[in-house]
Amino acid sequence: MNTKTTRITPEQVEGQMAFCQKIHALWLSRGITPKAYVETYGCQQNEADSERLRGMLAQSGYAIADEAEGADVVIMNTCAIREHAEQRVFGNLGALTHTKRRHPEQKIFLCGCMAGEPTVSERIKKSFPHVNGVFSTHHLWEFPSLLWQVLTSKKRAFAVADEAGSIAEGLPVVRSNNLKNWVSIMYGCNNFCTYCIVPYVRGRERSRLPEDVLNECRELIESGCREITLLGQNVNSYGKDLSLGVDFADLLAEIAQLPGDFLIRFMTSHPRDASKKLFDTMAKYSKIAKQLHLPFQSGSSRVLKAMNRHYDREQYLELVRYAKSVMPELVLTSDVIVGFPGETAEEFEETLTLIEEVRYDSLFTFIFSPRIGTPAAKMEDPTPKAEKNERFARLCALQNRISEEIHEGYVGKTFRCLVDGRDKDVLTARTEGGRLVRFAGCDSLIGTYQNIKITGSTTWSLTGELSE
Ligand code: SAH
Ligand code: SF4
Ligand code: F3S
Questions:
Q1: In ligand 2, which atom is closest to the CA atom of 197?
Q2: Residues with C-beta less than 6 Å from any ligand 2 atom
Q3: 176-408: which CATH number, 1.10.3720.10, 3.80.30.20, 3.30.1050.10, 2.10.260.10?
């Protein structure tokens, strides 16, 4: 496998923009405004990629639609993290035969993480003839030329070569939100946790240049963005591939010093690389939200070793202790996997005791799903499914109790929150820690920071009222 990052040149990006113009001209000559629909699965990285796809589509003259029915282009931006996620995509892809029958000119693409799996692109080639093209995340920047190919020839477009990965700057973007935006600071992953498919489908770790990240953040803030979430599979290893002497904490500090009223969040932090320097930096700057998503995956050091996580239970707990000592108000969230191959009943208990000890505000909980090509898929897994389901239910019950207790503790306190939208008859807002608050108010408050006094709580959210 090629392990070198491909930096796409400005000329190459311009070449793609020329395809956008040609596609635009093609539709103009037909006197039609075409429609495009992008369906996104998976994590924020895919959401961020979909915003770029919409940008390229808009540049090519497409109006962005909110359903596949009647759309001239449909893109499925997919997730490969668990088998269930893939089954859903294949189901929905199959259903597109009907929309295409009603609109035979419809062009259908599959991209994202599933497109990086050779078995998937082969299956599409053979069994899904109504799909016009497949491109992996490394080839996202080439989408305009692929679209041109399927519009102007009968050929299907497959751009799925196995590569270390690319970085393309300057692609157009249609953001789905003006207030809260994602900024990818790096792509790919080098960690090869034994259960995880991401390094295989998203390539090696590669960082954007600090000035490119800073410029994007500056532009967003100047155009009214109030919350920036920096994205990467392992943000704490930002910069290692650049050798510029800038690490993630340095980058955060630089962004935090930009002028304007905004908050910075980031995800995801790998405990292996999270440093005291990072927590000190978070503590120092008021514009960095005191919120940390720090996946632990398991509370058992033996299981963590089998997962290739490079930290043990004690090291993880020590990190959390330090982070809480410099940021007493820190809101912690995490990811955890139940039923990793060979996880014993005692090891599962260690996961529960870790949760009790840390007391997360909320958790993303997963049952282990074997992914073909990863080492864990080949490990012996004697625990019956029913037993795993039972463990999963116990874990969720424990976390729900903790979330409820923490949320109850918020009642009576006042938080500065970003009002970010409306949900039926109430406004929604987020605390600095990222907790959802519902309260009564008028739409003119959307986009402003308000002090909100918490008056009630549930497991999942808070209710409150405006306070002086
Ligand atoms: N880069 C991030 C996680 C990305 S995937 C990190 O390392 O923290 C998001 C979460 O999906 C992971 O944290 C893990 O908990 C879960 N996950 C990944 N692969 C999985 C699998 N094969 N089965 C079940 N859960 C999985
Ligand atoms: Fe997957 Fe591990 Fe990389 Fe996260 S750090 S994306 S879990 S391999
Ligand atoms: Fe899924 Fe890819 Fe994200 S596998 S979780 S969309 S990086």
A1: 1
A2: 189, 191-193, 196, 198-199, 233-234, 270
A3: 3.80.30.20
